[in-house]
């Protein structure tokens, strides 16, 4: 459910910014926040080391791997983990949807050639230095917030089997040793 909510919010917000020219370069909070419509052909934070189709294929493969991992471990996962991973998947699906279809929708290419729509820009500057010079979208917010949450609360969200098994085995060994009858050497004394 979190994945679906993020995907819908992301795609609606991108549709809104694309179809509302009056909002495409607008100051929301003076000196802090702007909407600045842009199309990102590269990866996160403007990294552009591969072609757009190659990035699209890598993104699809990565999300497929994440989805397989989640499905294989879903029985052991707790609700916090599942919500965070739902946010990651929803955000990833939102950006992949742009890569698959945006070039066709905006008439500049084909499948896998789409650029990701970004528009949220924190414009805070200290002297000549922009504090956070990146432009992002709702999908990026969902991915970033869930990863930060997973890092902060990883001990609550991840099941640690090795520690539990070792504790159970050592407790069982102690119990077995206390239940053993005294050895024959002890009886002679």
Descriptive notes:
The protein has 189 residues and is of the alpha+beta class. It has one domain (2-162). Helix content is 58%, strand content 14%. The protein contains 7 helices and 6 strands; from the N terminus they run αββααββββαααα. The protein has helices at 2-19, 52-72, 79-105, 138-152, 154-157, 161-179, 184-188; strands at 25-29, 33-40, 116-122, 125-126, 129-130, 135-136. The protein has a 4-stranded antiparallel sheet. A two-stranded antiparallel sheet has the order 4-5. A hairpin with a 3-residue loop joins β1 (25-29) and β2 (33-40). The longest helix has 27 residues, at 79-105. The radius of gyration is 25 Å and the shape is globular. The model has no long low-confidence stretch (mean pLDDT 86).
List keywords for this structure.
189 residues, 7 helices, two-stranded antiparallel ribbon, alpha+beta
Low-confidence region ranges: none
Tell me the major beta sheet: 4 strands, antiparallel
> Helix and strand succession?
HEEHHEEEEHHHH
Percent range for β-strand residues:
5-15%
Radius of gyration (CA) equals 25 Å
Principal-axis shape: globular
Number of strands: 6
Across the major sheet, the strand order is 1-2-3-6
Please give the alpha-carbon distance between the first and last residues. Answer: 70 Å
Number of helices: 7
Amount of helix: 55-70%
User: Pairing-aware structural class of the strands and helices?
Assistant: alpha+beta
Arithmetic mean pLDDT: 86
The number of domains: 1
